[in-house]
Design brief:
Helix content: 25-40%
Structural class: alpha+beta
Shape: globular
Number of helices: 2
Strand content: 35-45%
Strand order of the largest sheet: 5-6-7-8-9
Length: 212
């Protein structure tokens, strides 16, 4: 009888040990699953924050301005898409007449470096039939602001900037004027470069005070 009692005690001990191991295994699995869910949730939250930063910029500007241009580009040539945005005042007047250009240079993380200028595009010219802002043309690390600034004679203005990857800066590269007369023989194209206007950063460029 003592032998049977010992066998029973041994069986109970082994069973308890197995149950404890199973509980520890399930607990480890649950902790791992919860950690994975938490990490995934953080990942989704971070991604949402990164994506919404652009939306926040657009929403904050939309109170007083309209988004009239949004283009993808790769100005720093790192294969990561950058963006160019142009906002124009909803109510342009003599005191609020310039559009704002935003250059957003993105990183792998989804964050971006912001460059802006509100002294390039004049959106208010009541005494002229000029069409004003046309477009922004992009080629590699250059972008050109295209404007029609006069209707009689027709005069188009081209303001070209270059992204300098070494300095992570944007500089004025060229300033061009194309004038078209009824007599084609009078047509004239003039281009100015850094030899004429010196070094000008994108943020500090002012179309009214630039000298060339």
């Amino acid at each position: 009888m003592m032998k049977n009692f010992l066998i029973l005690v041994l069986f109970i001990s082994v069973s308890c040990s197995k149950d404890k191991k199973n509980e520890e295994h399930h607990e480890t699995q649950n902790n791992s699953t919860n950690q994975s869910i938490n990490n995934h949730g953080k990942e989704v939250e971070d991604k949402h924050t990164q994506l919404s930063k652009l939306d926040q910029l657009i929403q904050s500007k939309s109170v007083t301005d309209s988004l009239i241009l949004k283009k993808d580009c790769d100005l720093n040539m790192d294969t990561i898409k950058d963006k160019i945005l142009v906002f124009t005042p909803r109510k342009a007047n003599t005191e609020n007449r310039f559009s704002t250009i935003y250059i957003l240079i993105y990183k792998k993380s989804g964050e971006f470096t912001e460059y802006s200028n509100s002294k390039i595009i004049n959106s208010y010219n009541p005494n002229s039939y000029a069409e004003g802002f046309h477009d922004i043309a992009i080629k590699n690390n250059y972008f050109t602001v295209e404007e029609n600034i006069s209707s009689q004679p027709i005069q188009n203005k081209y303001t070209t900037f270059i992204f300098d990857k070494k300095n992570n800066a944007i500089y004025l590269h060229k300033l061009g004027f194309s004038t078209i007369y009824p007599d084609a023989n009078q047509d004239k194209d003039v281009v100015y470069s850094t030899k004429d206007f010196g070094i000008n950063t994108f943020e500090n460029y002012n179309s009214e005070t630039i000298k060339y």
